[in-house]
Here is the input.
Amino acid sequence: MTCRELAEILDDFVAGALTEEFCVSIRSHLEICPECLHFVETYQLTIQIGRRLPPAACPEHVIERVRRLLDDQAEP
Here is the structure.
């Protein structure tokens, strides 16, 4: 496992969506690579903090623009 390979599958690793074989390879890499370990820990912390944030309201002008785009797509 290289640092680049880990970065490419990090979201799947954190989500628990990888096979045990991949997870073993990642954990082995993390044991010898402090930079990647820090990267994974920071990624996980960012997710935890993000989940605690209250949902933000979408600005009305954005909603209107999306509605217009959808209406334009629906017209034959």
